[in-house]
Amino acid sequence: MLLPGPLKGMFRSRGGQPPNGPTQPAGPSRAQAALRGGAAAALLSSRPSRGLEEFFTYIRGRCGLRILDMGGATQKNVTFITDLGHKMYSEDFLQILNDTFGADGTTEQSNPGRIEYFLKQTLNYQEGEFDGVLVWDVLEYLSPALLTAVVERLQHVVRPKSYMLAFFHAEDKVDAVPFYTFRIGAANAIEVAQHGVRQPAQLFNNRSLEKLFGRFESVKFFLTRERLREVIIKA
């Protein structure tokens, strides 16, 4: 769905019920409700981002690329990407995760039927459809079976040599982590806002992340002051 008005670019927001219930198409009101920003959260920080800088270095000087944002649509992100001459697609990945499995439904994330349904709602794209993906921090809320399926699907939908940017919390022994929204401030700067806390399904160190993305060409890490690992994954 092409958004009207100032929020330009390609946007797709999908949700609905799990496999034992009906699937409802997202209407305009749901799409607008998916937009994150403004007074919904306090701005924690605006800081340089080496990961974001690497991501935009990859697409610098190119035009007409297809970029996927898995954090839900924000005005800043859509405007920044489309002003560079690219097409922006957006999935409210965590909202669809909650709709499918429940906010704390990690025990259901190994159900093959629900996994298949979830992938149809979030990453149902053609092979090699995207030139870059802003994954943000959504992967650490997936239990192993679902995470493996999502990473395999990401590898399917990105073109060879394209970049993905993902964030992971650096602490490996915590029960809950801050739940952030990320907004692009510049090609090398990011705004980070917290929306409370959320229990991760699993936490990662550098070695486990290298194993997770072992079928990709390369993985590169940057540690931030929020104790986040910014990870650039090259397909």
User: Main β-sheet, in a few words?
Assistant: 6 strands, mixed
- Report the β-strand fraction as a percent range: 25-35%
Give the total of beta strands: 9
Give the rounded overall mean pLDDT. Answer: 83
Q: Could you please say which CATH topology applies here?
A: Rossmann fold
Structural class: alpha/beta
Helix fraction bin: 25-40%
> For the CA atoms, what is the radius of gyration?
17 Å
- What distance separates the N and C termini? 27 Å
Model description:
- This protein has seven helices and nine strands, in the order H-E-H-E-H-E-H-H-E-H-E-E-E-H-E-E.
- The chain is of the alpha/beta class and 235 residues long.
- The chain has one domain: Vaccinia Virus protein VP39 (Rossmann fold, 3-Layer(aba) Sandwich), CATH 3.40.50.
- Strand 6 and strand 7 form a beta hairpin.
- The longest helix is centred in the middle third of the chain and has 14 residues.
- The N terminus is likely disordered.
